[in-house]
Design goal:
Length: 331
């Protein structure tokens, strides 16, 4: 018995030491990289890819801890990114370009909507939008502080229509649809997929004038990153775009399910049919999310955009186009 006790007393310290060594040698669980994301506006149908990417664990699988905040217009989103209040933003790229030209500390890392949906939308039978001059005399509902107002200024200057010739009525974005239906305005300025789907949901036919059809090479939605975050966490940016692309693929594969999930998860006004219509129209203006070119940008489109902004005195910078964007992080 004494021999057994001596054997056990010798083994116990050794076992304890082995456990201690094992505890020290075991690698610590790496923490997920925190990423603060801000959207262009409050929840809209085309934001479903972000919620799906989060719900399906696409961000988590990439080692990212992503928080998503609603925005208050692309111009504000660009400013908050530049100030470092957020790390990555989903926004209208024309607004991002303008702020970068002013010295904003952000870089565009991906574009999936190369043709802007900026438009003027009214109701067929009430207005006849035959060209830029057909807007003169109409009451135009527009929201200051976002891509809406910027597009309107560019359109006015590019078509030699002074802003003083346009009857622009400033209002919140969520008030424009009601104003159109209640005849307080004749047309609204904004995203074509949004407002045409709103009109169709009432059983009426929309009348739309798309700015891109009148020679304005404006760019639509994409992603920009705060420069400090980009320098400190380049892998996180690459992983974010890869996971978000999966979210877009999931939403595009089943818009019905994507809209159902979104309406269960956040406040989204309107019927599901309107959500589906809205999202499908956005997809028509966008690079397919299963394309190898999804997110990729070109020097040609950036040259056209910056030249246009300079021509209407909305961009004073003469920075080369490659200072505005990079393709180094697209999936």
């Amino acid at each position: 018995m004494r021999a057994l006790n001596r054997l056990l007393s010798g083994l116990l310290p050794a076992a304890a030491l082995a456990l201690a060594v094992g505890a020290v040698a075991a690698p610590a669980q790496a923490e997920d990289t925190k990423v603060r994301v801000v959207l262009d506006w409050a929840w809209l149908p085309y934001h479903s890819p972000f919620l799906l990417a989060q719900d399906k664990g696409f961000y988590k699988d990439e080692g990212l801890d992503v928080t998503i905040e609603q925005g208050r217009g692309s111009a504000n989103t660009a400013v908050m990114l530049s100030q470092g209040s957020f790390d990555i933003g989903h926004l209208n790229i024309t607004n991002a370009a303008q702020l970068i030209g002013k010295g904003g500390t952000l870089t565009v890392v991906g574009i999936y909507q190369h043709k802007s949906g900026a438009s003027f939308v009214g109701i067929k039978g009430k207005v006849n939008l035959t060209g830029p001059r057909s807007l003169v005399g109409l009451r135009i509902g527009s929201t200051p502080g976002g891509s809406d107002a910027l597009s309107l200024k560019i359109f006015s200057a590019a078509n030699d229509i002074p802003m003083s010739d346009l009857n622009v009525i400033s209002m919140e974005a969520n008030a424009k649809t009601a104003a159109l239906f209640n005849d307080r305005v004749d047309v609204v300025s904004g995203d074509a997929p949004a407002y045409t789907s709103y009109v169709q949901a009432t059983g009426q036919e929309p009348e739309a004038l798309i700015l891109a059809d009148y020679g304005l090479p404006l760019i639509g939605f994409g992603f920009a990153v705060n420069n400090d975050f980009l320098a400190a966490h380049p892998d996180a940016v690459r992983k974010f775009l890869a996971a978000t692309k999966k979210g877009f693929q999931a939403a595009a594969a089943d818009p019905d399910a994507a809209c159902s999930f979104m309406m269960e998860s956040v406040h989204l006004s309107g019927e599901k049919s309107r959500c589906i219509n809205y999202f499908n129209q956005l997809l028509k203006l966008s690079t397919p999310p299963d394309s190898a070119d999804w997110g990729r940008q070109t020097a040609e489109e950036w040259t056209k955009l910056t030249d246009t902004l300079r021509s209407v005195d909305l961009l004073e910078s003469d920075k080369p186009v490659d200072t505005y964007y990079t393709n180094d992080f697209v999936p």
